[in-house]
User: Which sequence fits this backbone?
DNA sequence: AAGTGGTCTAGACCACTTC
DNA sequence: AAGTGGTCTAGACCACTTC
């Protein structure tokens, strides 16, 4: 076990059980180094990680303090920013199915070429899927993916989980995602497949998703019925 | 100037002008330490920050690489996650005004007490504001704030910027925010003040915002007309 | 003046990847 | 076997806060 991870875990435990009280300052870095039989640099590494977790904050000259929302944040630390693949997001307690509405391979249009950074001879999958959770329509997805980046997608993959296929079969790692969230009136697909009424609102998520190396592999738009989909976001204040 | 900031800036510059090409690996840490006349630890600190910026990534045993989306990300690095105070978000090129629809001080209800972590004798501001940008209705805000945390709010503050008041007058620093984004049908306020029609969708942002020390100071719901408001989110893949 | 966190050096050992 | 990044030590100097 890495030393800084040990220190992190111990401090996290002490915050949770109230040994380090909210608003109070932790022992200073020299004391901690002594207690954990290490050096200040290693203590600082542990503290830095806890700062990024929004559990504590440091003030030069003054000390390191437990944030008042240390517990609040942890209350929500599942589900937040997890909008990455319906299957992974919802977990095992739900029955997830997909109905393939459209699946073809074609050349990309100008917009798709720009978003996915493609050349004119590259091909894209053009997919429409209805996602069904616990036997109810959950979301409607319009997905474009480059064939050369994610080879081998077929109907059996689409019926299960594309992200599962990328992770486990292709052994590629998912990286960052750039999303635009908006509201709109339902379109014909929403009305037909999501059981929306004519003037019902839908929640739209437009996203470009990247692999770990920064190559974009998904350009998609997802529609959620207004009474079902919610997006949860936690923005850390550490960079402000 | 701090040494690791210098190194960051230089590397950032080299990526931007293509001296370090996308997908290629940077010089190894020992070489960089030599070039910048410093030690590996300081180089690592600079690299760590660039990794958090999603500009590069490291692979133990192999090297440090420029991400393919290094430029893509920087294309959007304004505006992303900036949903913090309309005034700050929109900047100086817009004319921002507010119309106060409701402003009173009262005891909180159970929900507000829980979200804002209040005792029964604490008071909250209960505010309804129409935000007007470039002479057009832009958003409708229902805001609750604890009086003891943010003292001294009055109509002159509400007509300008609450966040500006907190930063500059109270000299407190804004921290994290927890948000839930959803879509709904317009309500009576939306129809009256945002000029929504009866069945028009609105984009809803429910949020709790915290000060740097983790104390919650805002519990609010903001309504955007569906053809105006969009929320932009960038999720870094570094923690996956 | 004393206490605190932030930066930096000059080394060492190790885990993992590449060839 | 050689090259790479990750962790860790034992110190030093400094900026800032607190009293």
Assistant:
């Amino acid at each position: 076990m890495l030393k800084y991870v040990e220190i992190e875990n111990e401090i996290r435990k002490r915050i949770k059980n109230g040994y380090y009280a909210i608003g109070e300052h932790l022992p200073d870095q020299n004391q901690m180094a002594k207690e954990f039989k290490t050096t200040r640099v290693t203590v600082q590494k542990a503290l830095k990680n806890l700062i990024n977790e929004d559990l504590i904050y440091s003030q030069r000259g003054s000390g390191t303090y437990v944030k008042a929302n240390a517990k609040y944040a942890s209350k929500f630390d599942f589900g937040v920013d997890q909008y990455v693949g319906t299957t992974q997001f919802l977990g095992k307690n739900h029955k997830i199915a997909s109905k393939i509405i459209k699946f073809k391979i074609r050349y990309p249009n100008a917009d798709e070429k720009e978003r996915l950074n493609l050349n004119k001879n590259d091909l894209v999958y053009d997919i429409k899927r209805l996602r069904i959770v616990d036997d109810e329509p959950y979301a409607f997805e319009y997905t474009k993916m480059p064939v050369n980046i994610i080879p081998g997608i077929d109907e059996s993959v689409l019926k299960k989980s594309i992200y599962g296929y990328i992770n486990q079969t292709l052994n590629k790692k998912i990286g960052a995602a750039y999303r635009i969230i908006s509201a709109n009136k339902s379109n014909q697909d929403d009305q037909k497949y999501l059981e929306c009424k004519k003037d019902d609102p839908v929640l739209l998520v437009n996203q470009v998703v990247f692999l770990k190396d920064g190559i974009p592999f998904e350009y998609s738009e997802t529609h959620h019925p207004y009474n079902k989909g919610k997006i949860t976001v936690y923005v850390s204040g550490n960079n402000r």
